[in-house]
Amino acid sequence: MTNSTEINAAAEALKKGGLVAFPTETVYGLGADATSDTAVAKLFAAKGRPSFNPLISHVHAAEAAFALGEFSAEAKNLVAAFWPGPLTVVVPRAAGCPVSLLASAGLSSIALRVPNHPLTLELLRAVDRPVVAPSANLSGRVSPTTAAHVKRGLGKKVAVILDGGPCTVGVESTVVSFMNERATLLRPGGLSRGDIEKVLGHALEIEVDSAQPHSPGQMESHYAPHAFLRLDATSPHKGESYLGFGAHDHGPYTLSARGDVIEAAANLFRLLHELDGLGVKTIAVAPIPHDGVGEAINDRLRRAAAPRPKT
Ligand code: TXA
Ligand code: MG
Fold it and tell me: CA dihedral defined by 76, 116, 68, 47, rounded to 10 degrees?
């Protein structure tokens, strides 16, 4: 397990402009010093990420976030309810915000999150500056939910990988923008829309225009394994592997034997990695309910199944 010496080594590596992979409750992140243009540029290069996709700045406490962005009363109320946790808010950059403009891809906004993992909160306290972190995978590929996934995908490009065990939530944070009149859902994620709307006291606007990628979660092919995906499959065709939901007779893989969407989210990326490792051409995936975090699971599956750009 990871101890304070490793956390301090990771903090030092970040301060020197290096890349550090760390666990969060959602997925593993690939972190860089958000205040360093060079470190952020290195991060984009390591991921192979189109630089118009802006990054989330991670901090250890809400107070640190309030120094970087301008929070309305409603935004403050929302983060008070869910931080640390799987919620990212997009707010106007504060005057004098030290975060690299490269991290915001030239936008006047900033995305902020306090992740809920003890090890990473300790790391963020130790570096004492914002850390940008996309999921620790090559751009477009399946997100990592274990340290082993990170090592397989990015191993050579990372100075340190902190191992905090498997991620408990398993899909990325929910992204809510406060840049418009009304709070807007930019990416469904580990925190359900219903839970957010209960605290806000009204429905979220939903932004769905994938031609304008405010959120790369909104680009088409994303989160993709090497295998093709066939969705809403009640049984596999010949030669396909089957990823079920609930108990079934089509092999050993199920997102949740008891048919629980929260458990399914936690297993989603791990099972996609595992089935992909078998080298099958197509993975057939059972229909998944859309309620709660099921909205995020369906969103990720749809993008993983989307037509892929020719490479
Ligand atoms: O759970 C998570 O959010 C993980 C862990 C590591 O924290 N991180 C993650 O980062 O998923 P990434 O880079 O894969 O996704 C960041 C999302 C994207 O949809 C991006 O477009 C959106 O946040 N985003 C970042 N900055 C933004 C901004 N200024 N305006 C609008 N969307 C923004
Ligand atoms: Mg990602």
Answer: -130
